[in-house]
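Q: I have two molecules that I believe assemble together. Could you output structure tokens for the complex as a whole instead of separate predictions?
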Amino acid sequence: MASDAVTIPSSTRLPQEAEGTWLETLHGWVTTVDHKRLGLMYIGLALVFLLIGGVEATIMRIQLAVPHAHFVSPQVFNRMFTMHGTTMIFFVAMPILFGFANYLVPLMIGARDMAFPRLNAWSFWMAAFGGLLLYFSFIGGDGLYGAGSAPDVGWWAYAPLTSPAFSKGHSTDYWTIALLVSGFGSIGTAINILTTTLSMRCRGMTLGKMPLFAWLNLVMSGMVLIVISPLTAAQIMLMIDRYLGGHFFDTQAGGSATIWMHFFWIFGHPEVYVLVIPAFAFVSEIVPVFSRKAIFGYPVMVAATVGIGFISMSVWAHHMFTIGMTSYGNAFFVATTMAISVPTGIKIFNWLGTMWGGKIRYATPMVFCLGFLFQFLIAGLTGIMLAAAPWDWQLSGSYFVVAHFHYVIVGGILFALFGAFYYWYPKMTGRMLDEVLGKWHFWLFLIGFHLTFDFMHIPGILGMPRRIYTYEPGRGWEGWNMIVTIGVIFQAAAVLLFVANLVRSYFKGAPAGNDPWDAWTLEWSTSSPPPAYNFAVPPEVKSRRPLWDLKHPEDPDWKYE
Amino acid sequence: MMLKSKLRHALQIVFAVASPVPVASAVRWGPPSSSTSIFAPASTPANSIFGLSLFVLLITGVIFVIVGSLLVYAAVRFRKRASDDGREPPQVYGSNQLELAWTVIPVLIVVVLFLTTARIIHAIQDAREPSNALEVTVVGHQFWWEYRYPKYGFVTANELHVPVSEPQSPTPTFLSLLSADTDHSFWVPRLAGKTDLIPNHPNNTWIDPHKTGLYLGQCAQYCGTQHAKMLLRVYVQPRADFDRWVRLQQQQSSPVNAQMNQEAAEGRRVFEGTACINCHAVRGTVADGRFGPDLTHLMSRDTIAAGAAPNTPENLRLWIQNPEAIKPGSLMPAMNLSDQDFDRLAAYLLTLR
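A: Yes, here they are, computed for all two components at once.
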């Protein structure tokens, strides 16, 4: 009866056939509570901020290409790295991953929409409002009339640099309130995804049959719920310090600078996993489909993810090895940090096991995932180096760390994200992204990425600290910094090519059909783009790969699960 | 044609997985002359860290080679071939033995890494301070370093002098780290890992440089606008030279004699009659400000503005006239004096030997 379970509706409506005036269309988007439209709006918002954050990074790299450069002042440079970090984490990575989760989770579990569609819309608009507030600081930040200035306290905003004594005007306030507001949105989304995955799955889909994508986003949401709260609390405490005469972090009045660090990093480190687990989710869907094999070790993958979720809550102080904790405190965080490499390693081996014995098709999504696997391996290994606390005393706060976490975020998460774009864009728009442009995008970005972030490790080892707007010649840093900057050109070209591909393919791409990749999860059983109601008939599944069962009635998965 | 596309395909895969390995390249290409390389240790803490880092590099390197090779092998060996029959490959859902293997083996590696790391943490962090150790209090300021030598009773700035520590009879230097304002971090890579200077949170670290010479570093925790030019200079001297330096620093600077140097005497009047003394101290005069560097023996220092510029008469004059030209965003204000007064002031400062 499986063939009845996954009904394939006949309509293959293409997006440009949408009717109504542009005003009606705009109204439709602004007032929407549809998870697919909200998902696309999250992704669109994040892409805009990605370009802005990229420009900020480029400004920094131009300044650092040679020693003693005068491209920007120290004040501007400090704003650039603060805004770059804040933007990329809170207004690119989080919204774009929420966007994909929003769009795909209900489709993959055969649901009509998210559990709380209005909360969903509210969450999106909070994120957008937060981003707007952050950037309004360029106009209203300084507090003096006519003089704008963006936040310049670094993206982790260590106390007491944020106290009124050292950060005058309103730039830090914009930073604080932007994170507060978008944090509320993130908590809303987390509640929504949790509830949706736990209670809206279609008939037959037990938790053990839920696609890994949904599982991983379930874990991510649980983490967001737990870790955004301390950040929110800390932001409120900072506001109390700045406006109500509080002294939580005011060291001049006996407050504690280290308490802020703890609050920030109990959010900040799990946040890395909040971002990387959705990237794992993309890879866990794309690698099996393009290797033509079921995911290797599904139960272990789920267990490893849950394990990462728990352990990640106990590693935060490895960001603080240099603040003078006791040797026992340091040793504890060495142990937990190294322990988390075990479940992470399991995941890499399972993806490898999925590829093993398959017939791998190197379409653009898979090529990006291969890049992810390779770079994430290196990022994990440099992570172990940083976990060895004494070595971290040397590497912490240096360009080695900057290279390491960009290896995670760009080499890992962004590569997986690009793969996800090529993989699901056909579902979202009804049209394929251009494969030739896609390969160009991949190679240019790969070259740029490795030029920039491989060579960025070296000045760190040679003693170059991060967050400096210029540096002394003769320390062996200058050549490496030039190579790092040259890599930016390739990355920028690749991203522009990608944006061009997104726009061009929307109008001229080859029609995708329902299931262009011959895939196995429920989203491919409905039309591309899916109708507002998602499924004409509520689907029913018997295994983790309902479309495999449909396509291979002689050898269905449910016999083995 | 087919061969060519196959070749291109294979090349694509090889390149996708075989980009340069960052760390190994650094070890090989890092200029040995770099005075701030963490791989050129010259003191016990930096040396133990170097040893640990080689051990960790070895283990992670082996993991990289094994897993990376498996990845390349799988990517090439299991690619869909042109001769493919179009059938799906056999479906394998997992293997308990394999899962167990790639859980247990990493756990064992982690245990070894943890124990090694814990030993080095203990060795460096819990080292006992010998009775003959030199004690220096380091105070981080926006954006310069204050060094107090409590035993010798003087204060200096930006250039730390310590005696060399012979391995046979070690004379290490123990540093207490304080901050007057925001967070800073004391990092001289060849001597030790960094330790933060945090207000209301006193920290400690120690060094025992084995060789004389100048060791460079800089503030490694973002502390505000001019974080970049908060440079560290550690002068490691033979014991006799160090003792001579201490004796010099303990003296007051010789008073300016109007007969000897009319311009400098005028300069002293300018110095003591303007806001200079709110922030700066010159021992033996009315100037006892503590907000900026102690200037008692300013001319015994090689650099000004926390290492941002060589201590030449021209730079000194530029620094008091227009600090923004040397270090934009520093807290040293431009003094708005007449050109003549700047000349006098500079002449006075040049007498602070």
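A: One point stands out. The first strand of chain B starts at residue 134 and ends at 141.
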